[in-house]
Amino acid sequence: MAFKSHITRRALGFWAAGAALASPFTSLAQSVFPQPGRPIRLVVGLAAGGSLDGQARSIAKRLTEIAGTQVVVDNKPGASMMLSASEVMRAAPDGYTLLFAPSSVFAQNPHTLSSVPYDPFKDFTPITLASRGPLVLTVHQSLPVHSVKDLVAWAKANPGKLNFASFGTGTSSHIYAEAFAKAVGIDVVHVPYKGTADAARDLLEGRVQAYFDAAPTAIQNAATGRIRILAVAAPKRMAPMTDVPTFTEQGVPGMDLTSWIAIVGPANMPRDLVARVNALLVQTLSSPDVKEFIARGAYETSPSTPAELSAEMKLAYDRWGAMVRQIGFVKQ
Fold first, then answer.
1. What is the mean pLDDT of residues 17-33?
2. Which of 130, 204, 215 minimizes the C-alpha distance to 176?
3. Which end of the chain, N or C, is surrounded by fewer C-beta atoms within 10 Å?
4. Could you give the 3-state DSSP secondary structure of residue 145?
């Protein structure tokens, strides 16, 4: 009997070892990621202090609690956020280096910049959408307009006098301004700045008259009474500015390309690891505190599957390409 029991235990041991060797690496990766004490980097392509950075820090704080390991926001500004993208592209595909980036990095830069050091589809692994939020059309209060219709009428009555700020040539604020002008048949003067802060400041001071701004900054500046928000570039009205109509509602379709922020990793992340990281991030983005923080900035959390993010990236890439071609923009 003892001999039989010994054989049974040995057989059981060999079976367990064989099962472990035969099982796919998926279960192994899921069981060990993240490793306690090994930090996860969330790389952001803008300096600390802005709305994008704020979202990343809110997510990192909650993800630290859920994942049980420190999640660090690593700011790598510069070169239209291509420095941050390049750093993540070169990282090991182990889930510990992730890119937190807006749609412009994947869908816009390849159409507006002559030298982009990455392929948005081949060099990254989609993990999840993080949030969505629109640009909004703002004007200085000295301009006697209160709607898109008013603005178009004023521009046509004052040809060549309407100037639009942007936070850089080829940026979304510039492309939107040119697309809007073409759609409604007006001439505008483009005034490029080196960043969002400078453009928003000069609009507040009345040095420029109109500007496609990110919703969080626009809401804050509109509260001063020195600027007005005329329209939201989104398919629907957005909280917390439900009183601001969309362009489509005001008779200008085609301006509903909402910006989004995504979380991706380097290319060739194992499928099981992607699923594990996605699950952690979806849980984080569904947390009430994260949703509330992001909603205060006129964005909304938008967790997704990797496949849904991949489809969104392709759709945005195609739509931005069409918009850039429509206005005749030449790569810079």
1. 47
2. 215
3. N
4. coil
Structure tokens belonging to residue 246: 């969309």
Beta strands in the chain (DSSP E): 40-44, 71-75, 97-102, 124-133, 135-140, 163-166, 189-192, 210-214, 227-232, 259-266, 300-301
Q: Which domains does the chain have, with CATH numbers?
A: 35-134+259-327 (3.40.190.150), 138-250 (3.40.190.10)
The answer to whether 131 and 263 have CB atoms below 8 angstroms apart is no
Q: Looking up tokens 């969002």, which residue turns up?
A: 196
CB 269 within 8 A of CB 125: yes
The structure tokens listed for 163 are: 């100037």
pTM of the model: 0.84
DSSP H or E stretch at residue 285: helix 271-285
Instruction: Tokens for 301, please give them.
Output: 């959390």
- pLDDT category at 25 given cuts 50, 70, 90 is very low
What pLDDT does residue 240 have? Answer: 82
Alpha-carbon gap, residue 77 to 57, rounded angstroms:
15
Whether 122 shows a pLDDT value over 60: the answer reads yes
User: CA-CA distance, 147 to 231, in Å (whole number)?
Assistant: 8
- What confidence score (pLDDT) does residue 49 get? 86
Q: Using one digit for the tens of pLDDT, what is the confidence trace for 190-216? A: 999 988 889 999 999 999 999 999 888
Q: How many residues does the chain have?
A: 332
